[in-house]
Amino acid sequence: MKFNDIMKINLPDEFPDKQFSYFMESSKLVLLPNKDNSWKEFAGASNIIGWRFRSCYEDMNSYIQSWAGHGANVSFEELYVRERVLFGMFSSGVSCIESTCYAAYALASHHSIYNLPFGENEQRRCNPKSLKVALKPFDTAKIVVDELNSIIQSNEWKFWVSLRNRMTHRSNIPRIIRGAIGGSPPPAKALQFAATSSTPAFEADEDYLVNLFEWLAQSIKNLLAGGVEIATNP
Predict the structure, then answer these.
(1) What are phi and psi for residue 174, nearest 5 degrees?
(2) Looking at the domain assignment, is residue 12 inside a domain?
(3) Domain annotation covers residue 27
(4) Is 38 exposed, middle or buried (0-12, 13-18, 19+ CB in 10 A)?
(5) CA angle, 162 as apex, 98 and 68 as ends, to 5°?
(6) Staple partner for 164: which of 72, 94, 114, 126, CB 3.0–4.6 Å?
(7) Residue 62 neighbours by CB under 8 Å, 6+ apart
(8) pLDDT of 168-216, one tens digit each?
(9) Does 47 reside within a domain?
(10) Is residue 195 included in any domain, yes or no?
(11) Overall number of domains in the chain
């Protein structure tokens, strides 16, 4: 962890401090002289980017530590802990991307940038896809648009969202439990889940979660760099 001077909390080493600092500084130069609704919405969303990033990291580590300490043969209480932190990881990870998009949308709505409508309807449906559509007509938003395209089309983002949605209001992800007759069962993996109507079956070790988190960090870094371009070259 490292201390972030803007948010005044410790953040994982993977957090893109430099890009976040540039994004905040350049955006404030635009938004603070004439505060309006753009600043209010920007300030709220940009503040939680780091909070959600840290929550995602901590929940991921809790899952990995539970597996390292207890393996596959655990009590229902430990299963509850794992389900809770897995839900937290995926919910916070999606929120981290979406809060970055929300902050960028609020910035782009300022009259000195693109003067985009950002009322109740736009705020409710703000996500990578809606931000991409809104910014596509503007040449100076190309960095953000390209990164949004990359995120939307990636298997990683689809996986993040599908698991977040499933665990939010449909069901936990069903675990696969294997047995064997006349011998030892195959070695269990940290992630062994059956398919549902909205999520694929998948098996992986704990490194898969680490790779997903690294993808998240790089995506946030690229989005913030694009946000700087919007703020400085409207």
Answers:
(1) -70, 130
(2) no
(3) no
(4) buried
(5) 95
(6) 94
(7) 81, 85
(8) 999 999 998 765 566 666 788 999 999 999 999 999 999 999 999 999 9
(9) yes
(10) no
(11) 1
